[in-house]
Design brief:
Order of helices and strands: EEEEHEHEHEHEEEHEH
Shape: globular
Low-confidence stretches: 6-24, 159-164
Helix content: 25-40%
Largest sheet: 7 strands, mixed
CATH superfamily: Spore Coat Polysaccharide Biosynthesis Protein SpsA, Chain A
Structural class: alpha/beta
Number of domains: 1
CATH class: Alpha Beta
Strand order of the largest sheet: 1-6-5-4-7-11-8
CATH architecture: Alpha-Beta Complex
């Protein structure tokens, strides 16, 4: 498998001490990972909703999973506009493998997954991060609306995990998120829309999505 990675500079600060300049490279707080396959007609809206977040200390990893439409060109156009964007261009292996490759490239303290046909409210990441830090959480699930652009909000689900009473191991939870094993009725477990502490998901993602 061949990955082409288009790297941009990381965010940094420059500290002046006398005549010396010290460049301090710093990792972002959140790595936003988006697996992409033939989504050129909706991808721009997705990317704009991420780079326009109120919370700015992010990197955006766009994983082009062998798209045959103009998705890669859309990614490259936005990467020229925003140096927080990193593009991974790879052969098609499916959404789970794309998430894996994005996760292994991520450098943030937290990881957030968004699908290529989704978009965020401006305060989404700020809200999730504030709660995760206040309560020292390894994972926090966001809510979502189902929207058709021509109709507006179609439905507002009650939320993830509402009817779940099972105790899951970390591996089982991840495999359900990725659709590798079935969930119980009413659990509604998804990979997207959740904020994860990267240290908790990195190894599991690497093992599960081989």
């Amino acid at each position: 498998m061949t990955l082409s990675i288009y790297l941009k500079r990381k965010s940094h600060s420059i500290k002046k001490i006398g005549k010396q300049r010290i460049l301090h490279m710093k990792n972002p707080t959140i790595s936003v990972i988006c697996p992409i396959y033939n989504a050129g007609n909706v991808l721009g809206k997705c990317i704009r909703s991420v780079i326009d977040q109120d919370f700015r200390d992010i990197e955006v990893i766009l994983v082009n999973d062998g798209s045959t439409d103009g998705s890669l060109k859309v990614c490259q156009r936005y990467a020229r506009m925003d140096d927080r964007i990193v593009i991974i261009d790879k052969a098609n292996e499916g959404r789970n493998a794309a998430r894996r490759d994005g996760t292994l490239r991520a450098s943030g303290e937290y990881v957030f997954y968004i699908d290529d046909d989704d978009y965020l409210t401006r305060d989404a990441l700020n809200t999730l991060l504030a709660i995760a830090r206040e309560k020292d959480l390894d994972m926090i699930a966001g809510s979502h609306d189902e929207v058709f652009d021509s109709w507006g909000i179609l439905s507002r689900p009650d939320g993830h995990y509402k009817n779940s009473e099972r105790l899951l191991s970390g591996r089982d939870f991840l495999e359900i998120c990725l659709g590798l094993i079935p969930s119980s009725p009413g659990e509604g477990i998804y990979m997207w829309g959740n904020l994860y502490r990267r240290s908790c998901i990195y190894e599991a993602m690497n093992q599960v999505c081989k």
